[in-house]
Design goal:
Layout (H helix, E strand, L loop, with lengths): L1 E2 L5 E2 L10 E6 L10 E10 L13 H9 L6 E7 L4
Antiparallel strand pairs: 1-2, 3-4, 4-5
GO molecular function: L-glutamate N-acetyltransferase activity; L-glutamate N-acetyltransferase activity, acting on acetyl-L-ornithine as donor
Protein name: Glutamate N-acetyltransferase
Organism: marine sediment metagenome
Amino acid sequence: MEINNTGIKKLSGSITSPKGYRATGSHIGIKERKKDLALIFSEVPAKAVGVFTTNVVKASSIIWNQNLIQNPNGVKAIVINSGNA
């Protein structure tokens, strides 16, 4: 384990290395042959963060996620899709 100057601990391993995290990926047809959907689950609520467009025109999913990360109780799961913006 390594700690950088921001105080963030870098763990070796994978997304499931921290205690209480599970993850899975699947091919659902967004990409032709590769896994294109991921689910990351935390046994306890965790702080969610995001980087979003500054464009005035935003999809409803962007607005929903911007509101979601403001939840002081955190989130227990995120779903990530690949291949379409």
